[in-house]
Amino acid sequence: MLQELNQLGIALEQDNKLTPIGFGECVCHWQINLPVNNFMVLETPPKGDKGKPKFGQKTLVPDLRRNGDETLLIDDGGEYVFGAGDRGAKRHQLYLQLLERCLQETNHEAVKAVYDFITNTTVDKITAQLIEIYPPVANTDWCRDRFVFLFNGKQVTKIPAIQKWWSNYYASKQDTVNGICLLTGEQTPTMGRKMPMMVKSVPGAATAGGAISSFDKAAYQSHGWDGNINAPIGFESAVRFHKALDFLLNSHTNRYKLGEQVFVYWGEEEGEGINPEIWENPSFESIFASPHSPKKFNLEDIKSSKFYLVSLKGNKGRISVSGWSEVTTQKIKDSIRQFVQCQQLNNLSPSPMWMLCNSAFLNPSKEHTDRIATALVRAAFLGEALPDEYAYRIIDRICCEKVFNDFPSKSKQSRYFPRLQGLLLYLATNNMKYPTGEPKLDTAYTLGRIAFLMHQAQVKSQNMTNEDNTNVMRSLKALSSTPTQVFARLCHGSTHYHLESDNSKYIKKLLAEEFESFNIYILPEVLDLKSQALFFQGWWQKRAEYFTKKTDE
Q1: Three-class secondary structure of residue 140 per DSSP
Q2: Rounded to two decimals, what is the model's pTM?
Q3: Which of 164, 198, 278, 551 has the fewest CB atoms within 10 Å distance of its CB?
Q4: Virtual CA dihedral for 358, 363, 366, 371, nearest 10 degrees?
């Protein structure tokens, strides 16, 4: 995976899409404009029309994997820049030392302006300024708020000479040893005990980020090896693949968060990603998108090229790669086509991934959904079979809640559809396909159709308002898994009591049609999971046919 990320990083470098060495996007809170000494609060606008702006804004600034007291150049927290807080005195001295060194070696007027401003102010003056423009600061500690300096309208650390100085300083701070890079095979400085940066924006990881590669345990110190010498990676390659992964995690066409994990994906030709519209509307026609290159690519030319999919989740200070796959772009296209088509029974619109995932859980916010979420993404984009656990959970929830009987209610009806579509996807990815596109005369499928008609017969004959209380619904779990235990009793009750009503003549006719293709003597004692899925498909299919408006004929 790191090798492919390194190759992607090379392509992104050529397009000038990677951030400079030693820089990263961090949340900054205050902007100081020099030489006018003007302060401005930085805020992130709310999403949509509702909500309030969020204090702080992501900005590209110097970034360094810190250990203890380490300062950054110019754009840093209040305790470093102005000496605020309990640790401010010590950290402010480190900040001034680095700033003085940069000023001596660059002799740049912007650095001189920053130095003059900082050495001619106090914490009290800064506090008064901040309260004046943003009163809530009076009740908070701003020592860790990050400040960004502008000179004549341009961010000081983005001035080419200063940016280059910081990148060289950043490289000099790295712990490297001479070796051969595993990714490139070149003799080069390789990383020592730790990687140059951390991976951010992965759910479950620490706020400061997580390590994609870590050898900090005693088990990795055998044979005289220590730290990253276990797997030597060149400094430039390490920076490159970290920044490539950071690019993917911040690109809306190359990442999708579902539950407590995030998926990143890209193509080897143009770094193409997935159109984000697909996650909410799977039938969206334009599947692929190229986020970083102005060149247009022809899908026919790259259909045999590789496409990569990685699932990441945080584990405190580390990043866990819980899945890695590489397939062709054409395979992605074919898998999504199957994903869409198998859900379109009776003209239903395909359900979004998150809805299909939630349909398997009674309370998704309090249950472990990552395993099912990963399986759904891999089924949609790689065509892999969905696990039995997914179908079992959906069936268990249907039998528990019985919401698929509330057909007249639009809201409850729509809540059931993703469960049906999840079962259809489970059957499709497990090769339960039929030549005509319709289910064959399967015993479990037909049993589901008969079960619905028996249920509906009781509803009609007794004018029931609560459909959950029919004999069929009370025995639904047993009927769908061990049918021989209850089918005879339910069938006897239906034919001798419920079908004698004048309201049930039509249902009686439909039941006779179903029994023409149903042999009770081959009814199995136990239905396996795929047969149970077919049972509920038969139930819903018959229900859809039953409530479809009929012609006079």
Answers
A1: coil
A2: 0.81
A3: 551
A4: -30
